[in-house]
Every structure is written in C-alpha cells, then in structure tokens.
Amino acid sequence: MRILRLSASPHAVAAGVAAGVFVSWTPFIGVHFVMAFVITYFLSGNMVAAALGCAAFGNPLTYPFIWGITWEIGHLLLSREDHLAGQMVDLAALFHKLNFTELWRPVLEPMLIGAIPPGIVTAVALYALTFYTVRGFQARRRTRLIERARLRLAGPAGDMPSV
Asked: Membrane-spanning residues where (predicted)?
C-alpha cells in the first residue's frame, strides 16, 4: 500500500520498484540500495519505490532462494556443471581474507551472470504490474477526491452555493 500512495507518476513508481527488484537478484548485498538508486536515477524513477522494491523482494527470507536460482542459472549459462565438480570452495576462508580475485571465479561470477535473466524477467513483469496498479489507484483516488470536494461545495442542503 505504501508504494501505491507515493505521489509520483506511475512510471516513476514502477521504474523504482523494477530497479529495486532487479538489483535484489545480484550477489552484492551491501550495495543493493546504492545500485537501485543509480538505476532509478537513470530511469527517472522514484527513489522511495526503489528502496521499497529492494526491501520487499530482497530480504533474509528470499535470499537463499535467490542465491540458489542465480547459482544454478549462472553455472548453466557458463557451462560449468562438470568443470567445478569435486572442487571444494572454502567460502569462510575466502570471505575472511576478502580476496576478491579468488572469490570472483567460483562464487560471484556465476551468481552475477545467473542474476541477469531472472532479474530482467521479474523487473519487466513487476514494472508492468506496478505501473497499471498505481495508475488505477491514482485514478480512483482522484475521482474520490473530486467527489468529496463537490459534496463539500454543495453544502448540507445539497445545493450549490450562490456566488
């Protein structure tokens, strides 16, 4: 409901939500909001909608599913099913040392490549869904406000005041 009540155009709200959802697929958790804001800026979107899209789609409940999906899609796209089979990757040691070059190939590269297809699909789908939902909500809201203003001007007797 918070997204629907934003006072921005339907495109701005939908672009923000789509950007937030798209970056939630990437493995760079610490910078999702920054990435969403940059994409939203270039799409002329709403920054609050981007933050809400990030927080709603990418959260501790969804990350395990997102990581599993991006991992599998990335390995499929990079044709690495058998290439890394049998190799042990000590993620704790890699993260402890923060050695990006050793972490890139076995973990981040497949997850980043694997994030692109589902990110695009969900961003486009949620853009369309959000755009039409916000447009309908704003039209109904505008109609209700006009009706209330007309009733207030009519006064208690229902007659329009004379000027």
From this structure: 12-43, 111-134
Domain that holds residue 117: 10-151
Could you give the residue ranges of the DSSP H alpha helices within the chain?
A: 10-24, 32-42, 47-57, 63-77, 91-97, 100-103, 109-154
Are 32 and 23 spatial neighbours (Cβ–Cβ below 8 Å)? Answer: yes
| Distance separating alpha carbons of residues 120 and 118, to the nearest angstrom | 5
> Residues 30-68: pLDDT tens digits?
889 999 999 999 999 999 999 999 999 988 899 889 988
Rounded to two decimals, the pTM is 0.77
Q: Is 157 contained in some domain?
A: no
Query: Does 2 fall in a domain?
Result: no
How many distinct structural domains can be found in the chain? 1
